[in-house]
Request: fold
Amino acid sequence: MTPGFHDEELLGKVYDSALMRRLWPYLRPHWRFVAAAVALIPVRVVLEMIPGSLFGSALNHLAGVDRFPGLPALRFLAVPPGGFSPIAWLALMFLLVAALGASVDFARGVSMAVMGQRAMLELRRSLFQHVQRLPLRFFDRYPVGRLVTRLGNDIESASEMFSAGLVALLADLVMMAAFAVVLFWLNWRLAACAMAVVPVMAGAAIVFRWKVRDAFRVVRQKIARINAHLQETITGMRVVQLFAREERNFAEFMRTNGEHRDAWFTSINYESLLTSTIGMAGNLTTAFILWYGARLMGYGSVAMGDLLLFVDWMRRFYRPLQDLSAKYSVMQSSMASLERVFQLLDIATEPEEPATLGGPRAIRGEITFDKVSFAYESQPVLKNLSFSVSPGQRVALVGHTGAGKTTVLKLLARMYEPQAGRILIDGTDVRDIPRAELRRHIAFVLQDVFLFTGDLAYNVSLGRADISQANIESAMRTAHLEEFVARLPQGYQQLVHERGGNFSVGERQLLSFARALAQRPEILLLDEATSSVDTTTEALIQDALHALMRNKTSMVVAHRLSTIQDVDRILVLHHGELRESGTHDQLLAQRGLYWRLYQLQYAVQERSAA
Ligand SMILES: Nc1ncnc2c1ncn2[C@@H]1O[C@H](COP(=O)(O)OP(=O)(O)OP(=O)(O)O)[C@@H](O)[C@H]1O
Ligand SMILES: [Mg+2]
Reply:
């Protein structure tokens, strides 16, 4: 892993209006939930003011003063109906208000969560669709782990914006503003004292939050590194154990693990410092207000219940300050996640194409490469390559490793586009054939067989509804897998483990043949794996291969030259250029590149036989 690889884990702004504008289409269908949550804010603020008033009222009553502290408009709450003792009534009202407050919180929490999850479902859907339409060239460079993080963690973290951020942040701000106003209205002198510590609290919040953020960034980097290390170790466990790398691997892991723990400690230290500093500042003012307020009371200007109300409201004024900074960082990381998600959505997909060229039609399967040049990056891989294959012809591609054989097949299936030249099928440029249509006519057996988690039948049909069980079975028979399936306890329903780990290399290859056969393509592209299988299996594969090539245009990359001796034509590629072309016998007679390749393999076989 290169250093700086996880630099993406940077934290962004708290609120980015450009991002929010992009998010809006996902939120718009659920705007009623936001509206409801916002509408509940003033209700919540008023409910928050009542308990102090009720308590203060009770205290005043006990002291023999008939005074309702707090907003006069709410005075009616403290008036008991006939027959009720005033204290019992106040206690009952207190309970009712608390229950109402809890219901409002519940409603707000639920509506924001529902909206957030619905919006994230849509966002994840768009992202998944987008990723499936990205050009294959994109996957050559973008690490898989990072893609998984985008689709999983980042969307999860963006959704926190709704559960713990956006509306809650607004509610906190409104709450603080409202309480500041009523505190001044209650007693401006005491309120001024209470406000004096706000800059201290805000300062502490900013400084410590900043430190927490730095520490947390390190935490995220380390966790990303731990995950990458875990992924590599687990997927490469065979190599780890066979090469006895456990100890070195463990030491490496423990170093990152320790760094991760230290970063967490730092972050928690500052987090705790922040909470206690704000708490202490609040307590300091409470103590001061008690002392100062009692002095004022001595002069008869403040009743006991009023003092209690003031302290209660003051603490409710301070409370959001503490959460505010936590919500601030939630917003920050949500925004950063959202930004990364949108960055991925901004990567251009393959342009939209019509699904077909006008209904299903059979093709003859004539292939022409016309002066095709291609490079994955800057290094040219195919140079001015021209050849043609007539319908039904069986052609083999041979050449040294890295000569460009797989690349020829990939270009034909439009997995990549050539930079120069044309590729024609039945005289039509493949660029004018929609990919979906093209790939209905072509079956591509890849060099590295990929099996999906699912049952055996699914791995042959790949879920295509038009491939019946009878099709699957006949394909398996042709691929010589009938006996193999019969031996499996669950037959066609046998589960395939991740990437086909429970099948042998030869079985997997035959299975990939069956997959191609079941599709009944007009053109077969086959990239043979270099796996060495036993001679029986090799004979099976060779036989299945011939069945596969029957009655269709086939281009086969072969590494075992013995398998292709009877094809119609052999093309010899060398450094991306066509060097020789002809039948096996013709090419041997030329005594050129093919002859040398053949001699080499023959010599190896002779030696291993000896
Ligand atoms: N996705 C890619 N990005 C960049 N370069 C690539 C990519 N795939 C292949 N190449 C390069 O292109 C060249 C041709 O690769 P190709 O896979 O066509 O070789 P090949 O003839 O099939 O070899 P082999 O016999 O080993 O399968 C190689 O040098 C390889 O390094
Ligand atoms: Mg190859």
The chain has three domains: 14-186+329-352, 188-301, 367-449+520-609.
